[in-house]
Amino acid sequence: MHIKNRPLDSPSPGSPIPAAHLLSLHFPVHLTRFDPSPKTVKMAAPLVLPLSIASYALLSSYCLCGGVLEHAAVFRGWLQVHEPRQLKALQAVSGYGVLYTYVVPKTALTIFNAYLVVRPPTAASGGSHLRFGLWLGLAMLTISWVSSFLVQIPLQLRIQETGDVALARRLEKTTWTRTWAIVLHASSVLWILIGTEF
């Protein structure tokens, strides 16, 4: 919408326009109609979780970060050390660090997961969804522990004794099993959160 702004003393059509009037002849006007009626906004239902599931999700997220970090940073860092004595020292230090910051919480997560499988919380809907997610998570943790005891832990003990870089390369490759297992475990928790109403 345009409103013509012409002062009373403006020149008649056809006559020269003073420079002072050039910037004030036409300007856009935007009108907005005021609607006094209240607006109704629909809010999404809040996410309500039992304390057990909330704790389970947080612990799973922590272990996911720990598992990915162990593979991407710790074990790959060992590959950059080519002197056996230095590799043995590095394995001893970082191995104990991983034990307390990752293995212990992962053990707690496994025990907690097994407890929730036996005694799952009450779900308003999606009970089968919840049970499937818990069983899937426990299966992934079981795969991770089996891989650890049969492959990764023996390799780490041999690295600690020999400092063999070839063993470190083998360890980095085989630990993909544990990494994907913990990723799928975290995915099972997300499956529970999305598909279950408590």
Structural topology:
Blueprint: E1 2-4, E2 26-28, H1 51-78, H2 84-118, H3 127-162, H4 165-174, H5 176-195
Antiparallel strand pairs: 1-2
Helix pairs in contact: 1-2, 1-4, 1-5, 2-3, 3-4, 3-5
Overview features:
198 residues; mainly alpha; two-stranded antiparallel ribbon; 5 helices; 2 strands; 65% helix; disordered N terminus
What would your notes on this structure say?
This protein has 198 residues and is mostly helical. Helices cover 65% and strands 3% of the residues. The protein has a two-stranded antiparallel ribbon. It is elongated and about 70 Å long.
Quick rundown:
The chain has helices at 51-78, 84-118, 127-162, 165-174, 176-195, and strands spanning 2-4, 26-28.
| Straight-line N-to-C gap | 55 Å
How many beta-strand elements? 2
What is the chain-wise order of helices and strands? EEHHHHH
Dominant shape? elongated
**Portion in beta strands:** under 5%
* Rg on CA atoms, Å: 33 Å
Main sheet record: 2 strands, antiparallel
Query: Regions with pLDDT < 50 over 5+ consecutive residues?
Result: 1-8, 19-34
| Largest sheet: spatial strand order | 1-2
Number of domains: 1
| Helix segment tally | 5
